[in-house]
Structure prediction request, 424 residues.
Amino acid sequence: MRSIVYGRAVRALMGASSVVLLACSEQAAAPVAPDGPTLEAAPPSVAFGIWRPGPGECSAAIHDRYSTVGPDGKRYPTWHPPVDPLTGCSFGHEHGRDPRGSALYREVGDLPFGYVNEQLDVAGLGLRRHEDHVGHKIEWENDIVLRSGGGAGQLLEVRCDVMTKLHQGTHSKDAFTNNLHELNYHLRCSDRTEMHVALLTAIGRPGEFERTCGGTVTVGPATPVNSPAGGGKRRIPDWSCVESKVLVPEGRGSDFGVLHESWETHSEVRSAEGNRVLASFDPYFQVFRPSRYFDPRQPDGVARPAALCTHQEHDGRRARTKECDPVQQAVSGGAFTMLPFDDPRSPFNGARRQVDINNNKVRNAGGPRVWYTDPFGRQGRRDPFPGSVRQVLSAIDNDYGVGLGGPVIGGDRPYGGTGTRAPN
Prediction:
């Protein structure tokens, strides 16, 4: 029997020691990092081992093989395929694109899911924020073209490699109120712009979100309750969007496009001295068929789009779209039974996504390439401190901003995979 072992890899962001990823090796032993524990001996992080399988899915032990040692010496979950290639069993969820194909992988290595959340525990900021496992989603693209307007009306064009990972849970109530989500962002461009950043990005205000069809929805306190507000916004569909766009009378088609989430982030790395912005970036993360929307009539606010396929209002309005075809199963007598929301055959599983690569700015001319910040990307210093996260920036000023309204990546890659289902 062969085993896959994910170990500590080269990380430009984290500064971990180099160990080659062992994949599909015969009875591969756990790798040993020169300055850290073996994978098996590393103490578990809060994020490690929290996933539990559903009926017929891979065991937790198989899932835990896909792990890595973080820069703090702890063991973290990392990317894995939706189907284990050794056993053929399904994990029921996916984490996006395999990072090993990225041109940045040799520098970045295996992303330790939940590492920044863990540092928040020891940063002394009076906040604690941990996220579920399935929401970690990776996307990347090599050699993309970013264009921006330069001086004197010139069009500036650069080519970049980009890899990003956001914890974007679109199956639970979490994002209705919680605005802090772990973000990894890696960019290297032909004009020497470079970023390797990990932080908790504050997307909009805690306790509320922007509904997809317009307006602000106030829900309740976030966790933690003292979460800072940030730039951008979380656009999430709610019942009012569904009622006006999805439930329609005979003769009209439903607009299932309203069941679309757009998490529009704005993140910054700032220095402790003068609170100066050293870098900023604005990727937008979009999900086209999430497995939830907000309905204030539900006890936890969570309603399921799949249920709309058999729902009918008293006046006859209902969902009228081919989107419901795979959700409904015809039975005798012309009636329909609806698949459970977490059935792998449902298209409402959060597996269709894209990332918009927008503004990317560096203002670090003459500065060090390596900074240490708190988990929010603030208080940047040259030396590490308790709860700090290592950030790498090119020592240049890129004042024009790479990629205004930049390209979209991932939109042509559905990640459904065999067995993928909500929660995903």
